[in-house]
Amino acid sequence: MFENIDKKYLSVTKFFEQIINSNNRSVPNSIILHGPDITAQYYFALLLARGANCSGSKKQDCECQNCRWIRANEHPEILTISKINSKPDGDDSKSVISIKQINMIKDNIVVSSDYHRFFIFCDAEIREKTVDEENKINNFKFLNQQFPGSNKESWIPLGLTNKCFSGIVANALLKSVEEPPDNVTFIFLTENIENIISTIVSRSQVYYVPGECRYNCDYDYLIQLLSDYPNIDRKKAIIISDFLLKYSKDKEKSLTEIVMSIQTYLKDMLKKNTESIYLKQSILKSINNLQETIIMLKSNFKEQTVADEIAYILTK
Ligand SMILES: [Zn+2]
Description:
Elements: H1 10-21, E1 30-34, H2 38-53, H3 65-71, E2 78-81, H4 99-110, E3 117-121, E4 123-126, H5 131-138, E5 155-158, H6 167-178, E6 184-190, H7 198-201, E7 205-208, H8 220-225, H9 237-250, H10 255-272, H11 277-298, H12 303-314
Parallel strand pairs: 1-6, 1-7, 2-3, 3-6
Antiparallel strand pairs: 4-5
Helix pairs in contact: 1-2, 2-3, 4-6, 9-12, 10-11, 11-12
Zinc ion binds next to helix 3.
């Protein structure tokens, strides 16, 4: 099911392959996909739904009834739940996922089904796509996967926020997430895991789906590079410095862009860790000091010197 998927998704692809190959016994009840590229998350959610329901070859080009239905986004048991999708009769809410939708799901899952049901929660809008959104969709064009609804061409998947998926509504779903019937999986798509109430997070399998972040730079290399932060041994400074220069050259990204990505990454880390004062102080200090390296770059310091300085800031 995951042939030809870009190598940057390797870790999430591996997890999903394993799930599908174990005859669905290990499809989690609740999954959170997070990261900057919601479009990629949406495709992954549907691929998993296909893998769990495929009665054919389990390959991308499978033509079994389930694969065809899901590809056309018309499978009766694979529902996209958003403020504009899967609205029951009499639900006039247009800006949020509503309690009525949650009740519809609850009514649905008490009845048994021959299929492995998926409820994919996201935000969505009908409008003209930006160039960036168009590109994200084009990355997965080869899947031939349709979007839902009658406005397939202009439907855009977006990440859940606490505005469109409020705590009250999420809580109404909690019991179903906790103890769902067999063969029911909830998937939540979001940029930042903070957008999902902690009670759902703690009951879900969480996967990071890489993508281009605000500074046009994916996070995966930073997750690895900074895995021991703020306790990265100073002895590793040379390795980090060399890595940054090589990465900048290979990916044709300026060091300034890379520094900004590191700052964004650290800011996100700060948001997630409010308890540890030591970590908080380290992050704030690093972010400030990294700002100095941007000034160094503007003042035409040698890249090697700046890369060394960045590595020095990130180690101790
Ligand atoms: Zn199939």
